[in-house]
Amino acid sequence: MSIKSFIPVPRTLMGPGPSDVSPQVLSALSRPTIGHLDPLFVGMMDEVKSLLQYAFQTSNPFTIALSAPGSAGMEACFVNLVTPEDTVVVCVNGVFGMRMTENVKRLGAKLVVVEGEWGRAVDPQALEAALKQNPNANFVAFVHAETSTGALSDAKTLCQIAQQHDCLTIVDAVTSLGGVELRVDEWGIDAIYSGSQKCLSCVPGISPVSFSERATKIVQERTTPVPSWFLDQSLVMDYWSGEGKRSYHHTAPVNSLYALHESLLMLKNEGLENSWARHAKQHKALAAGLADLGISYIVPEDERLPQLNSVYIPDGIDDAKVRSYLLEEYNLEIGAGLGKFAGKAWRIGLMGYAARSENVALCLAALKDALSK
Ligand SMILES: *Cc1c(COP(=O)(O)O)cnc(C)c1O
User: Residue 91 belongs to a domain with what CATH number?
Assistant: First the structure.
């Protein structure tokens, strides 16, 4: 048996993530590895922190990049903040909302589910009703951009309702960060997590997380230990902060953080608003082209995510055949349906570096060809 170096064929990634990584970010990744406590690296981590504060639109001192994927960012928010004494209202309108409920159950807290329709935004009135029925609730959790269905929820309104009922908010922004409007401080979000591989177009495996001062205080004042050692943010806080007194917690993914630094810098240089506008513009171009092909969207127009287009597979078309044709003939990856939409939908991502005219043109041409065969 002779195993050789693995050299992947370059693909165009237009699924639900990972998204296309730009050559600029890939080149940052290949720079020399230095020690994670090297003063040079510590300085870079401080820059990552400030770039993340910009991306999240927050001045939260506790804003870090967790050394783990988005799912761990989700878990970090729940394990640090939620205890068995708490009541958590979770809005579920897709797969990632369901995962939030799983976190609450495993922590032994009281779970209240606001069941929403898949493919629709979370209904603010349903949240309001649930909070009226459960006056003891102290947390509200929801997914801003439901990647499993392509629906965008009104995070600002949902946070307002939560605040009126004295609840802290836990928000999944894995797919929303960088792709659609998101303002952590202005909207009063208490705990938020994202992922490196969606609209930031970085390599997978890092999860940006930010806690408000209220949330940070809860972590610091806990009387019971956080059930996960690795995700205990009171320990990580010393690693990401403290001038000169940074102490070892775990070995940071040094090169992945170079890549994240580069992708966040690209976002800062482009400007957040410009990035949101670019995603919206490419989404409109894609939607027009898909309509010409007779392909229809699952989500109503004003609730659609520009960066994740979920569409019905046309009648009589073989899902797997089309996706493997696109991959083999065009090196193009689009996503399959997830959860209730498995086998019924495609999910076409326009995330970060993939939200470009060339990608829209390639995807439309390739789909047209595949459908005609
Ligand atoms: C991708 C995704 C996650 C999980 O992120 P991983 O990096 O795959 O762990 C969580 N929530 C949403 C909305 C996502 O799109």
Answer: 3.40.640.10
